[in-house]
Amino acid sequence: MERKKIEKYAREAGADIFGVAPIERFDELPLEKHPRAIFPEVKSVIVIGRRITRGTLRSVEEGTNFSNYYIYGYDWLDNRFIALTTFRISEFLEDNGWEAVPLANLPPEVPPMGVKVRKKSPPPNVLLDFDDVAVRAGVGEIGYCGVLLTPDYGPRQRIQIVLTDAEIEPDPLLSERICLYGNGCKCSCPLGALKGEKEITIAGKKMTVAEIDYKMCTSCKNGAMPNRYHPAGKPDRLAAICIRSCADVLERKGKIKNRFKLPFRIRDVWSVKQDIDLYRL
Ligand code: SF4
Asked: Ligand 1 within 6 A of 238 CB?
C-alpha cells in the first residue's frame, strides 16, 4: 500500500505520530514477543501515537489535581481517543483489501497465558512491548528515564499498533539523539528509585537507560500510578516528577518540536516522600 495514502489518512484520523517497521526488523525477538505470533502474515507494523497535551500535565505539575491527567492523559487518551484513530486506520486498510490487527498497549511484562493451540505457537495472549516497537518503527528512542521519547513531544505521548499484511514503505530508525542525560540533564528521582544504568539495543540502536526499581514507582505519590491492567506491569510514570522534569529540560534545551510561549516548569518543583500518609497531612 502506498505509504503517503495511509499516513495521510492516519493524520486525518487524529494520529500525531506515525511510523512503520518492516516485520524483518523483529527477527531478533523470540516468538513469545514477536508480532508474527499474533498475525503470522504480518508484513508491516504501524505505530500510531497521540500527544499528551502539555496542559493535561499542568495540574499535576502544580500539585492541584491528578484526576484530569488520569482522564485526558491516560484512560480516555488511550482507551477512547487513540483507540478510535487505531480503529479507523484498521478500517481504512481493510477497505483497501489488507487485513489489519489493532493492538492496545497492554503490559508486556505479563507473559503469554492460556492453552497452546498449535505445537509451534506460543501460548495465547502474546503482548508486545510497544516502546520497543516504536523504536523499530523509527518514531523515537528510549530515554535514560526508561520511557519513549519522540522528537515532537519528548515523553508526552501514548501509542497503539496496527499489524497488517500490507507492505508499506518503512521509516528508518531515528538517528538523532533526543535524551540529554549527561549532556545538560541529570535524570533523577527524589526517592532514589534509579539504581544504576545499563545499555539496551533495539534493532541495532544502542541506548543507555537507568536501572529502575519499579516497586518504588508503584507506590510513588509524585504523579506516578500503578499499572491499571496487571500488578506485574510497569507503573505509569508519564506524569511523575522524574518524567515531568525530563519534559521540562528537553523543552528548555530546544529538543522538542512542540513549542510553547511559557516554560513548562514555572514554580519550584514539589515532591512528597514515599512513606507519607496523604490522609494525615
Ligand atoms: S515514578 Fe516516582 S519513584 Fe519512580 S523514578 Fe519517577 S519519581 Fe522516582
From this structure: no
3-state SS track over the chain: CCHHHHHHHHHHCCCCEEEEEEHHHHCCCCHHHCHHHHCCCCCEEEEEEEECCHHHHHHHHCCCCCHHHHHHHHHHHHHHHHHHHHHHHHHHHHHCCCCEEEECCCCCCCCCCCCCCCCCCCCCCCCCCHHHHHHHCCCCEECCCCCEEECCCECCEEEEEEEECCCCCCCCCCCCCCCCECCCECCCCCCCCEEEEEEEEECCEEEEEEEECHHHHHCCCCCCECCCCCCCCCCECCCCHHHHHHHHHHHHCCCCCCCCCCCCCCCCCCCCCCCCCHHHC
Confidence check: pLDDT of 280 > 70: no
**Nearest CA, atom 8, ligand 1:** 189
In a domain, 44, yes or no: yes
Average pLDDT, the chain: 95
Domain span including residue 29: 3-262
- Is the C-beta atom of 220 inside 6 A of ligand 1? yes
Look at residue 273 and tell me if it is in a domain.
no
Per-residue model confidence (pLDDT) at position 278:
64
**pTM value > 0.90:** yes
For residue 281, pLDDT over 70 is answered with no
83 ligand 1 Cβ < 6 A: no
Instruction: Please tell me if the CB atom of residue 222 comes closer than 6 angstroms to any atom of ligand 1.
Output: yes
